[in-house]
Amino acid sequence: MMRFFATNLGEDDEESEAESVDNSTSVDAKDVGYDSICDMWFWGHADSAKEVPEAVPMSLSLKTAPLLFTDNPPFYQEFAKYVLCPHFLDKQAKGAKPGHGCPFLGGTAYLRHADVSKFLAEVPAQHASGEIERRNELGYLLLGGDAFPEPSRTLGLGNSVNDHRVQRKWFEHLLDPKRLPDRAGWIEEVKAFLASKRAERKFQVRKDVAKWWQQMLWKHILGETLSWEEASAFIKFQSQWLQCSITSLPASFLDNNPMVANLFGGIVKSKVWTLSELHRVQGTYRDRIKALLPSEVPSEHGELVAQGILEMFVFAGGLSVPQTIHCATSVLCNESLLPSPARVTEDNVEAFVYEVTRLFPAVQGFCFWRAGQRQVLSLNAALRDPAVWGDEANRFTLKDVNLYRQKHVGFANPAVSAPGKFDSKACPGYQLALDISQAFVLAVSCWQSSTAPGKPLVWWQPNKVPKPQGVHKKWFSDFKYEVQDWLDGDQTGENLLRGMGCVDLARLLYKIGMADAEDDRIGALTVKMGPKSDREAGVKLVACNAATRVFYQLSRKRFKELAERVGSLEPDVGSPKPHSKYFDLDFGEGNPIIRLPLGDSLKKQVRDKIAGLMGDVEGLMSKLLGSSLEDEIDASHQFQTKTQRCAAIMLCQQAFQRVGGDKPPPHSSARPDSYLPKAKAPFFDITTDESQVAIARCGMGQLFLRANDDPRLAAYGDVLCDVTCMAGFAVRSGFEKMGAAAVFKREANKWHITAIDWRHGNTIVKPSDTTWNHAKWVWRCSMITYMTAVHHLVQTHWLVANALSTSIRETLGPWHPVRRLLQVLTYNTPSINHNSALSLYPESGMLHRMSAFPYEELRRVFASGASNFRFRTWPQEYKDMTLPEDVKSKLPMFEDGLQVWSALYDFMAGYIGVYFKNDEDVTADKGLQEYWKFTCSPQYAQALPALSRTALIDQLTRGAFDVTAYHELVGDVVAYTTDPAGAALQVRPGADMADLQEFLQVNSLVAGTGTPMPMFVPSGEKGDEDWLCQLDLSKGGVHSPKHFEEVSSLYRTMMDRMREISQDVRRRNAPGGGREMPFGQMDPLNLERSVSL
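Now predict its structure.
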């Protein structure tokens, strides 16, 4: 059976980038499954209860005017009106009675299912008797004879009865299901095709499936292997033959005007072949097929059978099967047609493919001639006849499979003859088409196999929702499938996605909240934020404001592979001197100014890079910092439902995805496939009460734990995780004040969260209250905000790390043992701190925008962090925590951290002992006297005791601890941010999740910590080499090689201890180790040896 072929005859051009980010609009619940292509018309049956519009649009006359220049203007103009106007045929058929047709395409068209079925059943016998004839037609279209070889000059369907019988006999033999794979066999073939495309990470559905299908036809029907290049060449030939069969005028013109063909050469030939070239290539393929025919085919029939098979590959199944697969996969991608949860399985795939071929048939019409009059059977109208298909004739709904088997006419099913007569006109490859289409749907809509470490779930995802485009554009726009292989459960929220079917997961970004909101714009917006097909060209964040786009792009542009930094890992041997310029951090409220060193070139480089990202080299960042905040958001930007939450989780992973990255050092949190760091202990669902206990005992909540001495909360438990201090800071309009304390009750070895003191609501919230989830959200947001702004940014970066890196370079000589030691631990710190100040400190900067504070209040937060800074050893921190001994001794930050502290302390004490034997050696060292002033971090200097050998050892140990272990604790927040319900830096009234802008801004900040850094316990790989050599001071001629031997012994002992501690930590983190969740932030093997952003 030949397919209907409309106006797009050439090979499809790949669609523009502008089209690739388009998205279908929201669909009301009453329209789910409704076929928007046909605009509610049944294409011509008078039984329809729908009123046909009064007139065909006048614009059609203009659109079809060029067809006046064809050899049959009335026919082609009417045909164009049909494909461009869905109700044109309804208008033609209005008033027609049962059994009577309507005028259409130069003949009489029959539209009712009853009429179409009756005539089809009569065709074989009537054709055999000569009562009717068939001519050179393709579906509805009249074809020209010039495109076909002598002597018939017609497509095989127009052959004589005897020639048709010869071809039909061997078609039925070659297409016998016993000779071909069954559905299970075809599934394996599809899987092999998908596996071959995994390396390319994408394939164009319409184009690539057509090429693959030609490979399958040649392989399984003829036993011939067709290479991908040969299949591509055949598709080009197919396109040229189809074009020429519709109109041979261009080809004839080139044949008759060889000078024109020679003049334009390849330019013309790439679009239009000459007739002579077309016939030459036809002959080549026909001869090749003839040589592959079964030996049983009589030699006198070889040419005829080979021509028939060639036409089958070009005009019949070679064309219709790829279109059916394209339509089937398009339906899989469209929630408006196939609502979620979408599950296509062995049980319903037959009905699914039948329904695809019913609503979007590849074969549109069946024509024959009676007494010189054309008879047109409208298969597509019959397939939508409400007399058979009921009120849902125009809806995509899976119906009883027996109804399809009995009433489906899309393959001219009733047109069968008695066995052995070979007069059938039904599609001989009917079962093959169903089997392969079902196989493709099953294979592409299930999880793909994975051999990667961790075995991530792998699936194929469309790069866009295929848009309905009507019959003249093969029903749906073409699209790409892109492989997704990042779902390995290594980020919070991913396990929520793993529970979804891969069809729903694949289209998650494109349709969000269908059942929960009338105005579903989040789906339309977030689809445009997905990465381009190459995953590296950047993301079009068209739904986000300028600030979000800058922050997002900046987080990616700052990323550097560790191998790119090898040169900068060498020791700095410059003489000590003050920096020429500083970035001053003035928090007000009597706080001394913190000074971050700044180089002119660095400042200009960063400024220009940010501006250049947005195409404004004259200073977009300056304009951005001077612009007002955009706190008001459209309600559709606020994630509220579970579907929206899952879509945001996917959006985050895809927006920050990258490919081709270098493998980071072992145990590094950096990832080769993402700009986001890897979560050490991702939450399955961060919103559960069990997760709140894990956050308090093994996560960021450890920093805020204290004994419950509040009489108001005494009845609820004996442990508080208290962040009520945040309630003292005002917020901008549209936000809710932060501040909350979670109460935990200890029972045996378990904790239970029992209440939350919610300060903004001025109430104690219990698990049974309606505001419980909101109170938990406020508590998590309060913790991450304070930890990020105070513990991480102000205290660790701007005070401690800045004090270490600045003071050694300004006061100590290049061969001073303290400078050489701290250089290892302050790698890249000046640049990192300057970048953080430039983007996070200013008014309208990243932190101001993503937090809820007015700028003066944000400065107060900074000021509180600076003024509250205290220098204490980690054992002193442990001693000062007001929790019972049995509780705090089991907190991972102490259980693991005190071991790390001990190893660091012993190394520092031994290292200082090599060069400074007593207090006098330390206090008399002029370099150390200047170093101890820490002039750029005055709050840090004020917190230190007087310089002594003991104080120096404590200060170096705490400094090393802060930029490694403590920095991991307060800076590793990715486990809280990749789920919009995790934690954010602002709270909106009534919301329990971040909004779109906040979610992407926070994760852009987190992505800045994803760049790989040298590890404290080195792996020895490029960029992560052993740093012992940097402590060799004998090369400067100042210190004895014996000193380095002692230092080497201390270093090896420390590294051995660190590896032993890591094993202890991993035993405690293992199931049964006594922890609610693993805590890897102080595992020595996970520690970077300096701060990252």
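The first strand starts at residue 102 and ends at 104.
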